[in-house]
Task: structure prediction
Amino acid sequence: MGALDGVAARVAGGDTVEFRPSGSSMVPLIRSRQLVAVAPVDPSKLAVGDVVLARVAGTVYLHLVSSLDRARKRVQISNNRGHVNGWTSHDRVFGICVAVDGVPRAGAADKVLTAEPNDRP
Result:
């Protein structure tokens, strides 16, 4: 189990989660140990350039959406250094980064998954 698996499970369960990922593959968008907030996402609303928490080939990444295949309901995930991690289905895209160090990411809030009125207690 990787470092982000627990975060992915919480986001998939409906929570918005703050954490400090490590690594340099997303610089300058996200620097190592910056506080990020990730909220559940509606994958049908994603656009190229969104930063998502997604599982690709068994590993969970906080990386960029680099391409979309809406017909097959999948997205391509890449880091910010040009490395493509691969394609993954919408059901493996858990969340979208809505803020970095408290600064909102443009357009991300509009893509957060919200419960339908009938789903609420």
Q: What stands out?
A: DSSP finds one helix and eight strands in the chain. Strands lie at 17-19, 36-40, 51-56, 59-69, 74-78, 84-89, 93-100, 103-104. The longest helix spans residues 5-12.
